Automatic annotation (TrEMBL):
Gene3D superfamilies: TolB, C-terminal domain
Tree of life domain: Bacteria
GO molecular-function term, one example from the UniProt record: inositol hexakisphosphate 3-phosphatase activity
Name of the featured protein: 3-phytase
Amino acid sequence: MKNKFIITFLLSSILFTACKNDKLAPVAPNAVKPTVVTEALPHDTDDPSIWIHPTDPSKSIVVGTDKDTDGALYAFDLKGKIIKKSEVLKRPNNVDIAYGLIIDGKKVDVAVTTERESNKIRIFSLPDLKAIDNGGIPVFEGEALRDPMGIALYTRPSDKKIFAIVGRKSGPSGSYLWQYELTGNGKFATAKVVRKFGAYSGKKEIEAIAVDNELGTVLYCDEQFGIRKYQADPALNDNKELALFGKTGFKADNEGIAIYKKTDSTGYILVSNQQANTFMVYPREGANGNPNNYPLLAEIPTSTIECDGADVTNVNLGGNFKNGLFVAMSNGMTFHYYAWDLMQKRIDDVKK
């Protein structure tokens, strides 16, 4: 009787799980398999960013968010092992990394995350994940709609100033995104708003944001509508939309954005087709001489499930990642690492 009860309980659990996840698309049989799957986090992975070690790329790390009231930033090595954890954060959502923020006269690499339940951005030094923001920096002050979600960091090539472009759960079209200049104030980092911009369809939300430092542009996903492109430099005083693409082909949400750089001006834009478990690939440089024309080059099935966020680098990290690393969040509280060669092969196969 005891064994019968155990079997019945297990079958019930399996059926419950299947019913709970019946809306999730299955991983395709021909999906790219991850090179590494990280250790699982306690709550809910959402967004990763890659930090490149200055002298030994094989010691580079991936910083990812654990999105919960009792969450944190976690650092993983290239084998997927957790090696650092930040202080506890109130629902950290997205994260991005920049190099050489001047703090107390010294250059400090930083990871900046949105902390949704406190309406702040939080700034941490790298690679030690120590808070350097004196408790956090409020964003969208004076607004009824705050709840910061997406973030991308822009380093202006001319003077190396660093700016954070921050999105939120909802907001008005035309000023959905706020841009902050990051600076040092003694031993702490601080920020001031320098720009408000960004069209919004009103369909869902704007979370995934990516900046192309070399091309000076910012891309963001207006979920269930398309991918929008703007100038990144606030000094240009140009809030005109440059391009709108990716309006078709997505099952539901267009989500995490990553930019793979083959040269200073060429490469790929990868966007998560979240509910299809694929990534849509567009030309970074545009097409037919038009830098704002983005035809779909390929759709790559991956093993990530319901991917919210992704990042990529072309740097030789050694080992399996000699031509770079693509990292994407997956359900199951993990991040998946893919050797870039695996992604490039799929793109090349479509071109044949």
